[in-house]
Amino acid sequence: MLRWLVLAAAVFAAIWLLRRSLSRHDGGRPRAAREREQAALVSCAHCDVHLPRGEALEHAGNFYCSEEHRRLGPAR
């Protein structure tokens, strides 16, 4: 019985270590850095609404909240 318990613990540890090492090889950057970059707020160049960078549309170095505002361009 003890042998099976030790074997199950070893298999669990091996799977856990394998999953942990594979999750670190996704883009080379730490997960926290990617989440911070996506969560950084930018403002729409047309209406000045703030939104997460991951949801914004970028065009010619400016960020926009919608396709219509991207088409209209920066506010004057």
Q: Which secondary structure elements does this structure contain, and how are they paired or packed?
A:
Blueprint: H1 2-23, H2 31-39, E1 41-43, E2 50-52, E3 57-59, E4 62-64, H3 67-72
Antiparallel strand pairs: 1-2, 3-4
What does this structure look like?
This protein is 49% helix and 16% strand. The protein has 3 helices and 4 strands; from the N terminus they run ααββββα. It has helices at residues 2-23, 31-39, 67-72; strands at residues 41-43, 50-52, 57-59, 62-64. Strand 3 and strand 4 form a beta hairpin. It starts with a helix and ends with a helix. The mean pLDDT is 86.
Counting helices, strands and paired strands, the structural category is alpha+beta
Helix content class: 40-55%
DSSP helical segment count: 3
Let me know the number of strands: 4
Tertiary shape: rod-shaped
Strand content is 15-25%
Number of domain modules: 2
Q: State the strand order across the main sheet.
A: 1-2
**Terminal Cα separation, in Å?**
77 Å
Mean pLDDT reading? 86
Order of SSEs:
HHEEEEH
| Main beta-sheet annotation | 2 strands, antiparallel
- Give the radius of gyration: 23 Å
| Uncertain residue ranges | none
